[in-house]
Design goal:
single chain, 301 residues, mainly alpha, 14 helices, 5 strands
Length: 301
C-alpha cells in the first residue's frame, strides 16, 4: 500500500484541484435532487403549482405531461390502457433517459439517493464490514417480479411500497409510515448490505439501467495512462465494477464506461487527482497518450 492509498478518500484531489473541483459533481447532484424535489413541493407547500403530481406522473405548468415509464409498463401488464397524455409523457421520459443514460435518474433525480449515500458515508466512518451482498442481477429478478405481480393483481404493484413515492407523499401529507420505510432503506445500507438497496435490489434502478443501455452520455477514462492506482475512483463509485473494463483495458480498447449500471454520478471525475476521467459521448473513443519521459527520467508536464 502506498502513502497515497492511506490518505482519506479525495484528500489528494482536494490538495491539487481545490475543494470545489474535488466535489463539483457531488454538489451539482445534490442541487439537482433538491431542485426536482422542490418542483413537486412548491405546489402543496406554497400554492405555486408549477408541477402537479409526483415522479410517477406529473404535469408541468399545466401543459407538459411526464410519466414514469416503469409505472406505464406496470399499468399495461395490469391490463389498464393509459390515456394519451400518459403515453406521451412516458415517451418523453423514455427518450430523455435513453439519450442521457437511464441511471442518471438514480444519481441526479431520485430523492432516495441522498439517503443511501448518507448510509454509505456513515458505514465508512464507522468502519463497518461490507456485509451481505446480493447478486447484482437480483434487482432484475425483482423488476420481473413487480411486473408479474402487477399482471396478476391488476394493480401498479410497486407504487404500493415504492420508497420514492412514499417519500413524496410523506413530504406532502405528513410522513407517517413513510418515515419507517425510508429508515429501513437507510438501515439496510448501513447495517446489512453496503450500497445494497440501489446497487442490488431497487427495481427502479434496474429498469432505468436497461433503458440507458445505449445512451449517448458516458464517462471515459481518457487519460488512463496517467492512473497512479490510488483506487479512489473505486472507493467512491456506487457501482465500482464498471470502472475496471475502461480504466485497465488493453491498449486499443475503449476507454468508455459502457456498463448500463453506471449512474453517471461523476464522483470518479471529482476524486481523481490526475484527471483520468471526463464526461463525453459514446462515440468518443480517443485515449490521451502521455508524453515520453524527459532526460531526467520523469514524465514531462
Amino acid at each position: 500500500m502506498t502513502a497515497r492509498t492511506r490518505l482519506p478518500v479525495g484528500e489528494e484531489a482536494i490538495r491539487l484541484k481545490g475543494w470545489w473541483r474535488a466535489h463539483c459533481f457531488l454538489l451539482l447532484r445534490r442541487l439537482s435532487q433538491a431542485f426536482f424535489l422542490g418542483l413537486f413541493l412548491v405546489g402543496p407547500w406554497f400554492g405555486r403549482w408549477w408541477v402537479a403530481g409526483t415522479l410517477a406522473g406529473s404535469r408541468s405548468f399545466g401543459i407538459l405531461p411526464l410519466t414514469d415509464p416503469m409505472v406505464l409498463a406496470q399499468s399495461l401488464v395490469a391490463g389498464h390502457l393509459p390515456e394519451l397524455t400518459a403515453l406521451i409523457g412516458a415517451l418523453i421520459v423514455l427518450a430523455a433517459y435513453a439519450l442521457i443514460g437511464g441511471r442518471v435518474y438514480c444519481s441526479w433525480v431520485c430523492p432516495i439517493n441522498p439517503v443511501t449515500d448518507a448510509a454509505h458515508w456513515l458505514h465508512a466512518k464507522l468502519g463497518l464490514q461490507k456485509g451481505w451482498q446480493p447478486k447484482r442481477h437480483t434487482r432484475l429478478w425483482l423488476l420481473a417480479m413487480v411486473l408479474v405481480v402487477s399482471a396478476l393483481t391488476g394493480t401498479i404493484a410497486w407504487e404500493v411500497v415504492n420508497p420514492i413515492t412514499m417519500l413524496h407523499r410523506g413530504l406532502v401529507f405528513g410522513m407517517g409510515f413513510a418515515w419507517a420505510l425510508v429508515a429501513l432503506v437507510f438501515l439496510f445500507d448501513l447495517l446489512v448490505s453496503r450500497r445494497g438497496w440501489c446497487g442490488h435490489l431497487c427495481p427502479v434502478g434496474a429498469f432505468y439501467g436497461l433503458l440507458g443501455t445505449h445512451s449517448l452520455l458516458r464517462v471515459s477514462a481518457t487519460r488512463r495512462a496517467a492512473c497512479d492506482d490510488c483506487m479512489e475512483c473505486f472507493a467512491v463509485c456506487p457501482e465500482n465494477h464498471v470502472i475496471a473494463p475502461a480504466l485497465r483495458a488493453a491498449p486499443g480498447k475503449t476507454p468508455l464506461i459502457l456498463s448500463p449500471d453506471c449512474t453517471n454520478c461523476g464522483r470518479c471525475v471529482d476524486v481523481c487527482s490526475v484527471n483520468v476521467f471526463e464526461f463525453t459521448h459514446r462515440f468518443d473513443q480517443h485515449v490521451e497518450v502521455l508524453p515520453p519521459p524527459d532526460r531526467s527520467g520523469t514524465t514531462a508536464a
